Amino acid sequence: MIAIPLPFIMSLLLEIIAITLFAKKPVEGKRPSLFITLCAISTAVVGLRWTFDIAIFRCLQPIFASFLPVMAWCCFSKKYNAGRLSWLHLSGPLVIIVCSWWPELWLNAIDVILTMLYLSYGTLLIRSSFVMPEDVRLSHVERVLFAQRVAGITLLVSACIDGVLSFDFMVYGGEHALYILSLSYLILIPSVVVAVIIVGFSTLSTESEVLSDVEEKSLLDASIDPPSKSVRLSEQDAKDIVSKIDTLMKDKEAFRDMNLTLGRLSRKVGIPTRQVSMAVNQICGMNISKVLNEYRITYAKKRLVDSEDSITDIYLSAGFQTKSNFNREFTRITGQTPSTYRNDA
Fold this sequence. Notes:
Elements: H1 6-24, H2 31-52, H3 55-77, H4 91-100, H5 103-128, H6 141-172, H7 177-202, H8 213-220, H9 235-252, H10 262-269, H11 273-284, H12 288-306, H13 311-318, H14 323-334, H15 338-344
Helix pairs in contact: 1-2, 1-7, 2-3, 2-7, 3-4, 3-5, 4-5, 5-6, 6-7, 9-11, 12-13
């Protein structure tokens, strides 16, 4: 019996580990788990197709491949509180399904559609990564956006590989196809899987976003009238929004909430998320995630000087989830490590 190529086995093992990880620590929704399961099935199908070359696997390979970019987008779109997704996202895979049953007639069309799907969703992921997400913990925003860009670039590279694969079949009769696919499934697919894992564990569930009585009252009593949707807020409107956020942070220490998201913050101050993000960028010159960390570090600095609590207790109390993130942000803002700052105080 011919052995399944090693790259496909390694990729499949990684995806099985990821599925197990999600099963032990459930994340928001089913999209990440479904995506990784789809990756595992797709990897297995491609490995079997190139091992046994059975007709059914040749038919299934492009079908599963067509769903990967769509599902990748679905996983990342959740962090923007996108809700239900349009059925139009299934149009590409449905066309591939129809064409795959008559590959001798539609082989070139399948290649073109797959390439366009990967190019389109790769571009869409990269473009949307420049928008502040609503449902991601603010302390995780930077790494989630980075993961999304990696996923987008990976899809674009996959589109290029599809093009190279088509060229190989036209010129060399598919002589190098196995090596080209091995590169894709050993490096590119695992990269997207890791990116989806990151966003899966960083996105809050709807249940954790339920407003408390205090938050509901804050929303109802909001004194700032939301400005009209425009490219840029007026200077006064932006200052009013930032002032409201500053009051919330100082009076209620909202920054200490590890699960604080842009959506949750906007509800606390009674201002739409887009305007909160715009106002902070206009007035502070940085995104809301970095502004939040400024409040957390200010709180930590005071605790380091005024108490004998351990650094671990302090960073957890300040709202950080990991020591590495706390140390990185503390050094960025103060130019010192937490222990050095405490010793010099």
